[in-house]
Amino acid sequence: MKKTMSLLILLGLLCVPALGQEAEASAAEAIEAVQNNLNIVWTCIAAFLVFFMQAGFAMLESGFTRAKNAVNILMKNLMDFSVGTLTFALLGFGLMFGKSGGWFGTTHFMLSDMGEGVESWNWTFLMFQTVFAATAATIVSGAMAERTKFISYLVYSFFITLFIYPIFGSWAWGGLLDGGGWLEGMGFLDFAGSTVVHSVGGWLALAGAIVLGPRLGKYGPDGKAKAILGHNIPLAALGVFILWFGWFGFNPGSTTTGNGSIGYIAVTTNLSAAAGAIMAMLVSWVVLKKPDASMALNGALAGLVSITAPCDGVSPLAAAVIGAIGGALVVFSVIFIDRVLKIDDPVGAVSVHGVCGAWGTLSCGLFNMDSGLFYGGGLGQLGVQLLGVGAGFIWAFGVGMVLFLGLKATIGLRVSEEEELKGLDIGEHGMEAYAGFQIFSNT
Amino acid sequence: MKKTMSLLILLGLLCVPALGQEAEASAAEAIEAVQNNLNIVWTCIAAFLVFFMQAGFAMLESGFTRAKNAVNILMKNLMDFSVGTLTFALLGFGLMFGKSGGWFGTTHFMLSDMGEGVESWNWTFLMFQTVFAATAATIVSGAMAERTKFISYLVYSFFITLFIYPIFGSWAWGGLLDGGGWLEGMGFLDFAGSTVVHSVGGWLALAGAIVLGPRLGKYGPDGKAKAILGHNIPLAALGVFILWFGWFGFNPGSTTTGNGSIGYIAVTTNLSAAAGAIMAMLVSWVVLKKPDASMALNGALAGLVSITAPCDGVSPLAAAVIGAIGGALVVFSVIFIDRVLKIDDPVGAVSVHGVCGAWGTLSCGLFNMDSGLFYGGGLGQLGVQLLGVGAGFIWAFGVGMVLFLGLKATIGLRVSEEEELKGLDIGEHGMEAYAGFQIFSNT
Amino acid sequence: MKKTMSLLILLGLLCVPALGQEAEASAAEAIEAVQNNLNIVWTCIAAFLVFFMQAGFAMLESGFTRAKNAVNILMKNLMDFSVGTLTFALLGFGLMFGKSGGWFGTTHFMLSDMGEGVESWNWTFLMFQTVFAATAATIVSGAMAERTKFISYLVYSFFITLFIYPIFGSWAWGGLLDGGGWLEGMGFLDFAGSTVVHSVGGWLALAGAIVLGPRLGKYGPDGKAKAILGHNIPLAALGVFILWFGWFGFNPGSTTTGNGSIGYIAVTTNLSAAAGAIMAMLVSWVVLKKPDASMALNGALAGLVSITAPCDGVSPLAAAVIGAIGGALVVFSVIFIDRVLKIDDPVGAVSVHGVCGAWGTLSCGLFNMDSGLFYGGGLGQLGVQLLGVGAGFIWAFGVGMVLFLGLKATIGLRVSEEEELKGLDIGEHGMEAYAGFQIFSNT
Fold first, then answer.
1. CB contacts < 8 Å between B and C, how many?
2. Tell me: the pLDDT tens digits for B183-234?
3. B91 lies in which domain range?
4. Is residue A268 part of a domain?
5. Best CA proximity match to B48, nearest among C370, A265, A188, A409
6. Which of B246, B377, C98, C346 could cross-link C94 (Cys pair, CB 3.0–4.6 Å)?
7. Collapsing DSSP states into helix, strand and coil, what is residue B386?
8. Total of domains in chain A
9. What per-residue confidence (pLDDT) applies to B20?
10. What does the pLDDT read at residue C292?
11. Which residues neighbour B387 within 8 Å (Cβ) at sequence distance 6 or greater?
12. What share of residues in chain C are helix, strand, coil (percent, to 5)?
């Protein structure tokens, strides 16, 4: 039986007729081998949970938009993951984790230098980092929903996982393998990616939404924002539950080690999400007069995004406070972007991922128990966090504007008015999401 | 790299220049550390699976009720988990697992005394117990669906996880940490919570359904029960599959140890669920003339609830028998409560969780291989099981009646007739679940 | 506390006052015990993921068919798993893994000889193999959707897990426990079941679809195929994401050992799925003029099925190539079966599981790094693979034809024309999937 193989190896290590220190050394190696296996099992399972977040995003984004565009958004989610898997293996992984002078990696391209054999840790690490890269990629589809050409979205997907996400990632996380970036060199804290994953995705989404312009009918002739209702709230709610579930891979999994801190990180993550959902509901109750379900759902996500950077180093109370602030922030941010900035972000992706990602990253500078302002750490950490947040914004928003303006000027970024009115499902894919159902008032 | 950290610790433990017994002791500590890490990884993953059951309940309950109340029930599911997370951390965890004279714990309040540092086992244990508490809480929403005021449901959620669930839990499970309750002192068996979680939730649901009264139109002027159809059976079926999946965290996870009995418990759990689904289908085929899908789905859940108490100590054959009896029981119980008692429980929560929870708990007294009646154990165990089932009913139903009658007399428990007819989604949350779809005959 | 139990055992093993080799031996046993626990934890979690694929199939198949048959297909999915759980325990497991002369096992019937106590590895192995058997079973429901009598489907479910799947399985995988089959004796490679699970299911599905004949209205009087649209693409897409997620249990879990190769197998699996989705989309874009969502979704599954046999022994580049070929193949196969062979397979199950399963199995003979043609292994491995593919086809298609023709001649295989037009939900189960929704053009 295969399962006894590694046991035999372990036994072998111990059965050498060693004495004293040699025996100890061989026992130590055997124990290390088991812990190493545990790390691989844990990190793989965490990666699978993060993969499942793709289903969460797909359900959330299709549920919060109109039935006539549901197939299109599902295809975008499927394809940004699929394209991203290939481009990250091709170039992204190397740019992010290869040997680096501080700005980007230059080894590990096309899955080279992955270590010896199929048991190398690097394969597990690649799997885990691939699903992270794909999370950043898929955030953008929500903000660009219901009006983006499918082919242009494919091109965007190609570039984000090829180099946009990896290069910023190398600045903050390159040292997790063979790299080392200027931001981590300064002591920047972002344990599981409030900035590296979520804000980068959120600012790219902002660039996309700006370059695209609002959906037809979103703003009246008087410039007033009109609500365009999502077509399937149960699907969106399912998406949020799946995302919350997946986040238990995202945050605790970022230990990439099967050790005792997993439970602690799960607790801070969960407290923050709960506080975010409750606070967003309460704030929406006051501001919008009813406990709004979309806001509560986005509030849970806001709590999750906010705690992603600080989850390993703050107290449970601080985690709840960080989540609650995230939950309040997301309500005001959604309203501000929609009504004041008049940028049309159908699912609130910029607020949830961009704004709350920035808040979560900054919160490390306040609440981190080693270096935060409220724990006697002075303003130093907060300054570094601010620098990281700023660098993330400049890089992602800047490159995003260039990319989307470039797409607009060449193959075009937006579908025709006629197609937008009819729906992208028919226009781009020649099919309906709900054949046989009577659907009306669908514009 | 982070992942080598714990390995270095392990190596350190072994590299002291020890001889003989000292070397053995250090190897033993290192091995214990790895097993401890495995326990934490396993228990956390099980907790995440149990968390995901929230999505299952949300889909099941919204699918089995009407479209006009779908947003409302999703919000209740989201909020009972979110509120429960905070109140369980505040007080519930301490009441359940703190040092106790047998009736309730008095330490660990507000996450105090959690052990040293982030690697303490107690954080993992808190995470696992939080999702259990939230499971008990969310059972109630189904029985009270389609007519309960949202604010009153929030108040209920606050109290169940604050003290109702924890105090009963301390009687049966307090000894899992620092407590010790009178029921466990008597040898009460409830491995994963047929009574502690499911019956407590089920009897609270019964109290809620009684105090609320039936939905408008549920009983005709002649007192005859009318079927009010669920609006989305695929969603409900998805919910059941998710719950079954999550139950593999619920039952095998209750080992809270990464050891060999996990596979055995998974097998008994799965056999019972399968037998429950088949038996409920067969019984419904005879009684209702067709193999009813709602009954089969509830039969799977009945099998799962029934095996939750005895899963670790019965034979696979007994597990199938316990599940089959649960599956038959749920059909008769649903019909009896609906048609004879005339209590309106829209999703059958009282039958699935209350009645089958009681059956499962009693079945330990019959089938447990150490102490059950059929294994030569006499009537002693069965008597203790009966006492525990009775205590659970008196506590949960009693406190539930006080709570719901109190809510009814103060802020009110039920929405207005007008709102109930129009749907709680518009009334309580100002939104529709399926904007754009033509939905009719919806009352 | 339960969690310290196994630690005490470990400590006990080390605390004997042993010296030299004795101490080493006890340390080795303790380390082996932890690794064994890790294997059980990992294999159980993988089994749970594979179980969750049942939800994926249920959502995929109901989404790709019509609303009027949704309840029926969900019931079939629930019941083939439930029935399969019991029959596999009864007979299947023994036929597949019991002591064998090469053709079928003869021990382990009715869960006998499962080893000592609840900690025996065999329980975990049973759990893992049960969900594999149920995967093969549930593939068939998609190809036979929208016209099969419910009772006949139950009989089919009974037999596939009782002996059809197990006997072929014993030829290829019996040696994983106490058996040993003629195919594995020849060096047949099928790591996680491209043939054993998927092709066997696919060829049974083919037999079922042929014996049933096409749905009413599927082929016009001129013999031209008409598209019958699926009613809920978001549900189908959710199904594919769930299946992809579950496949991370299916392939990496087939190590049944918590070791380092898990990460590698996850990477090859993921690359193949991504390449399959992209290629199917591209081919459909060329052939059908639009990037078809159904094809892209089936392409992801095609990639997953194709890599299932070779996932542990091919390079990442080969994995992507294998998936891409699978993705192209599935488009042509779906069109060929639909338009040329005029066999009505509503969800494309024969193409995805049968055809791509065969391709994946053959691909081992080309790309396996030890014995494949492109790695200097000659034609030997490819010949064995071809033999295994052929044996799978003859066994599964042959027995399937006998079974389905037998059912047709006795209790009948197909519902009446009237029932088919009205829908099987009303006809077989007396209920609607979407009560209250206006659904039209539903035939």
1. 230
2. 999 999 999 999 999 999 999 999 999 999 999 999 999 999 999 999 999 9
3. 2-429
4. yes
5. A265
6. C98
7. helix
8. 1
9. 55
10. 96
11. B183, B186, B188
12. 70, 0, 25
DSSP label of A437:
B
pLDDT tens per residue across span B131-180: 999 999 999 999 999 999 999 999 999 999 999 999 999 999 999 999 99
Cβ-nearest to A258 among B11, B19, B41: B41
Alpha helices per DSSP H over B162-232: 165-173, 182-185, 200-212
ipTM for the predicted complex comes to: 0.95
Query: Measured between alpha carbons, how far is B263 from C123 in angstroms, rounded to an integer?
Result: 5
pLDDT average, residue stretch B317-340: 98
Using the beta-carbon criterion (under 8 Å), do A293 and B431 form an inter-chain contact?
yes
CATH of the domain at C85: 1.10.3430.10
Whether residue B78 contacts residue A237, with contact meaning beta carbons closer than 8 Å, is answered with: yes
Q: In the structure, what pLDDT confidence band is assigned to residue B26 with cuts at 50, 70 and 90?
A: confident
Predicted local distance difference test score (pLDDT) of residue B49: 98
Q: For A100, list phi and psi in degrees, rounded to 5.
A: -145, 145
Which residue from B minimizes the CA distance to A316? Answer: B111
* C260 band by pLDDT with thresholds 50, 70 and 90: confident
Cβ atoms of B412 and A274 within 8 Å: the answer is no
For residue A19, what are its two tokens?
């004495």
Does A14 score more than 70 pLDDT? no
Look at C266 and A62 and tell me if their CB atoms are within 8 Å.
no
Distance between C340 CA and the closest CA of chain A, angstroms: 23
| Substitution target from A10, A176, A231, A238 for chain B, most B beta carbons within 10 A | A238
- CA C39 from centre of chain: 22
The whole-angstrom separation of Cα C172 and Cα C395 is: 13
- What separation in angstroms does the CA of B147 have from each of A317, B72, B216, C17? 35, 10, 9, 69
Contact A16, A22 (CB under 8 A): yes
Q: What share of chain A is helix, strand, coil (3-state, %, to 5)?
A: 70, 0, 25
**CA of B144, closest CA in chain C: separation in Å?**
20
Q: Which residues contact B116 (CB under 8 A, 6 or more apart)?
A: none
**Per residue in C112-147, pLDDT tens?**
999 989 999 999 999 999 999 999 999 999 999 999
> Which residues of chain A does C439 touch, with a Cβ-Cβ cutoff of 8 Å?
436-438
Asked, for residue B278, whether it belongs to a domain, the answer is yes
pLDDT of residue B260: 87
CA atoms of C195 and C119, how far apart (whole Å): 31
Q: Write out chain C residues lying below 8 Å of B66, CB-based.
A: 436
The chains found to touch B (3+ Cβ pairs under 8 angstroms) are A, C
Q: Does A434 contact C232 at a Cβ distance shorter than 8 Å?
A: yes
> Residue C369: enclosing H or E segment and its boundaries?
none
Nearest-CA neighbor of B80 among A277, C353, A97?
A277
Nearest one of C246, C229, C343 to C292, comparing CA atoms: C229
pLDDT 10s digits, A225-236? 999 999 999 999
In this structure, is the dihedral angle defined by the CA atoms of residues C431, C435, C441 and C442, taken in order, positive or negative?
negative
pLDDT (0 to 100) of residue C442: 54
Strand partners, A225: A219
Q: Does some domain include residue B410?
A: yes
Q: Domain for residue A436, yes or no?
A: no
Burial category of B223 from C-beta neighbours within 10 Å (exposed 0-12, middle 13-18, buried 19 and up):
exposed
Model confidence over B71-82: pLDDT tens digits? 999 999 999 999
pLDDT tier at C1 (50, 70, 90 boundaries)? very low
Closest in C266, C292, C442 to A127, CB measured:
C266
pLDDT tens across A358-393, in order?
999 999 999 999 999 999 999 999 999 999 999 999
Question: A219 has which bridge partners?
Answer: A225
Over residues C206-221, the pLDDT tens digits come to 999 999 999 999 999 9
CB distance A34 to C253 below 8 Å? no
